[in-house]
Every structure is written in C-alpha cells, then in structure tokens.
Write a structure and sequence with these properties.
five-stranded parallel sheet; three-stranded antiparallel sheet; alpha/beta; about 40% helix; homodimer; about 270 residues
Chain lengths: ~270, ~270
C-alpha cells in the first residue's frame, strides 16, 4: 500500500485500502452464466467442476477451457470440456496458466498449437498474436479449427475501450508489451507503462499481492486513470500483434478478415 | 570462475581460465565464407558492413540477416541485405537481437512475421517453432516466402548432435526450454538443465561474462560433457517445438515435410 499510495494521491483519490476478502463467488458467477442465454462458455485460470460443465451443456452452451501448455490441455480434456483454447505467449491480457509458473508457460502460438492438437482429441481454438486473415489461415494450417482474437477487437468502435487505452494500442509497437503481475496479481500481457515499470521491478521484494487482492487494490486507480485519460496507470492489456490493430467498426473488421482469408488462401495455393 | 570451477572438477577438467581476449576476427571469418562456395550467407547478432555484403554478393551468395523486431528488420533492409530472417521467440539457439535487450525482443513467430512483412519490402524468412509441414504452410500464410528450421534437423542422423543432446531433445516438452546467458554470455534458448539453473539464477549478481568471453570460458566444460554424455552441462539449444522433433535421416525428414505441406494445403482448402 505504501508503494501504491502516491499514485492514488496523484490521481486525487483517497488512500488505497488493502482488501482482505474479494467477493467473487464461483456459484454466483456460474448462476449468471447459466442465465445469460449465451451459446458458449469459455473460462481460464484452471478447471471448473464437472457438475458445472454438465449444467452449462444442458443449457446448450459449448464449454471451452484455456491451456498454455500441453499438460494443461490434457487436464482440460480430462475434465470434460468441449474444446481447448491454446493460448500462445503472444496473447494480450491474463495468462490462463494454472499448472506451472507463468514464465515457464510462455509458449509461442506457432509452437503451442500443433503440439496441443497432437496431444488432445478435442477441437483446438488458437489464440495469441492473431490479428488478421493471414493469422487465421496460419492457425488453421497449424491444426486449429477456430481462432480467438482479443487485441484485434479492442480498437473497434463498439469495444468500450477507454480512449487513452485505445490510443495507446494504436500507437504501440510489437516490442512494447510485457507480462506483468503489477495490476492484478496474476501474470498478464499489456503495454509497458509507468505503473508497470515502477511496481513490477522483477525483484523478489515486489510489493505485489496475490490475485484477486492486487486486482481489487488497483481497481480505483485504473478507473480514475481511465476517466482522466492517464494511460500511465491503465492496465492496457494487449498482445504482441499490436502494430496490426485497426480502428473501425466490428462489422468492417469482420468483412476485412473474410476478404483477407480468401486473399491468403489464394496466395498460398499452388 | 569460482562459481564455474566445481563443474570443471566434476568432469575431471583442469581449472577454468578466464579468457581475456577471444580471437574471432570478422575479416578472417568473412574470408572463409567468401571462399566457401556456399550459395547463401546468413548472419545474426547485428549488421555487417556494406562492403562485406557487396563482396559476398559478387561471389553469387544471397545475403540474409536476422531480425527479432520490426526495427531490426528495417535496419537490416537499410544495410543492403537480400532477405530478412524473422526469428520468433520460439526459436532455439542464440537470439539475434541487436537493438534492444533480449527480454524485450521475444516476439512470438505468429505476431512477428506479419509485422515484419508489412514493414519491409524484402523477402522474409520465418523461423521459430516451425517443425513440420503445418508450420511451413502457417509461415507462408503469415507472408513468409521461406522458413528456417533448426530444432527439426537437430535430431536427424546426419546432424552431428552429441548423443546426450539428441536424447534430451527427443525427450523434452514444450515448457522445458528457457532463454539463458549462462553458456555463452548471450541470450539463447535451450533445454533447462542443471548448469543453466545453477548459473543463471536471474539475479543481478549472476557471475556471467559478456559474449564471447563466457562462451570461451565454458567451452571445455561443454566439450567434456558431450564426450562423457553428461547432458546437465551441455548447451542443449532447442526451440519450443521440441515435442515435434523426429529421429530420422534428413532426406526422410524432407520427404515427410513435402507430404505434410500437401496434406495441410488440402485440409485447409475449401
């Protein structure tokens, strides 16, 4: 808290409060998901109980779990999910890693996808660094049946991304992201900024609480930073494909992706 | 030296000697390359002088430089090379990084290749995590005109890979490699083993000399380890695609790759 307090002061916020308990009940979250009417339920950070998977499936939802290594994909398959999302090291946002440490589990998409495809019988969804039609065709070549794109949609008109975050993504280079625990207490890839550099020094004495405590601790800071347009305090999650981010409507992006897939297929066909 | 000496003793070697100068003359190396009769000259760790590029080209060689970021690709293009090798973070062996630090410059192949392709006019060769026909087709989809494969050929009969190294690669998993400076003083990806864990602790007081001094210092250790089949002291460079390594002749691997390329193209064609 002592390390974080000056940032709160800088944004005109009251002193930060160390959360002792964070009210995230799995049951309440699952109930909301079951009532959502969604057609797919995708989760990360581990496994969910078999009873939950069965309840979701009874509502007609496809259930997807996130793996960052082959062992995680095998654990997900054994848990009864319908498909595995293979999350490569390029991916923005939180790492789904749940078996080994986050640093060990940063496998690039090009290497991860075929190794997961060979290991599991389930359909594999590729994620990490996929930003356009070239990436989609590449992921299919590696054996994925679908892709998951995050950063590519962050800068779409409909995304609700704060203006400072959006501008930072559109200006960023591929070597300006890093995996950090500074914002949430869990490893996540985002644009390097002042808060990340100053709080996550990589030394053992980093004053970073475990997730979800650090997440709750920094929430007021992130909210105020978004409202005040201060990108140096935003958790600006983004993947390594940032130079390919485009500012447009989601519909226009989808049309562009379809056209790029066709162009790519034509280019590589012999 | 004090940190390294016990390993020398364990392998029955005389005490290690700190090299003060390492005799690697660029001119002598270039002379050997010019006389080699090779059809391509590929380099890493930076740029080579324009006069050298011109001399190589006069001998009919295609000149390729290695980039781990877009800025490095642009610098190589400006230096006059014929093509750029985009080295993704999955790649085994030494990182070609020469503009920023090695940690910042670990961009996954899926993200790096299209961003380099968009930035330069030169042909781009993809490397990092490409182990079979699926990877080759994926790299072409991303915009590469060719691929460079290292780990895939390490376990071929003709490779000259020491037996202990070969066995370690064939047994390794995708999450058992790491980028380390322990063996050579320069960042390189290899299989995690005892020497790497004990010497490269990630702390600031790591007793690692700069390249090529550390490389010369550890050379007798690596040679003795290879001779004695002690894989814990080998610099077992390997990429993150290790689960896909196959033990066969190079000719059989080439035939398999050609077949897999066709299978992949057929699978993704609609």
């Amino acid at each position: 808290v002592r390390r974080i307090a000056p940032y709160f002061a800088e944004l005109g916020l009251p002193c930060p409060v160390v959360p002792t308990r964070v009210g995230e009940s799995f049951e309440a979250q699952l109930e909301a998901a079951l009532d959502s009417g969604a057609s797919a339920f995708s989760f990360t950070f581990g496994l969910v109980p078999q009873a939950a998977i069965e309840a979701l499936r009874r509502r007609g939802m496809v259930v997807l779990g996130t793996a960052t290594t082959v062992d995680e994909a095998l654990a997900l398959e054994a848990s009864g999910v319908d498909a595995v999302v293979a999350q490569g090291s390029e991916a923005g946002g939180h790492r789904g890693t749940f078996l080994r440490d986050a640093r060990t589990s940063q496998i690039g998409t090009m290497a991860l996808v075929p190794q997961v495809v060979d290991a599991v019988k389930l359909p594999v969804v590729a994620s990490g660094g996929i930003m356009d039609g070239r990436g989609i065709v590449a992921a299919r070549a590696l054996g994925a049946v679908a892709v998951q794109m995050g950063t590519a949609f962050l800068t779409c008109d409909e995304a609700g991304t704060p203006a400072a975050y959006r501008a930072a993504v559109l200006a960023a280079r591929e070597d300006e992201t890093r995996v950090t625990r500074a914002y949430s207490g869990r490893a996540a890839r985002g644009l390097v900024n002042r808060f990340m550099r100053e709080v996550d020094t990589g030394r053992d004495d980093d004053p970073i609480l475990p997730y979800p405590l650090q997440n709750a601790l920094t929430r007021p800071l992130r909210a105020a930073a978004a409202a005040q347009g201060r990108s140096e305090f935003l958790s600006a999650w983004a993947g390594q494909g940032v130079r390919l981010a485009r500012s447009r409507s989601a519909a226009d992006l989808m049309i562009a992706l379809a056209r790029e897939i066709e162009e790519t297929e034509t280019r590589i066909a012999r």
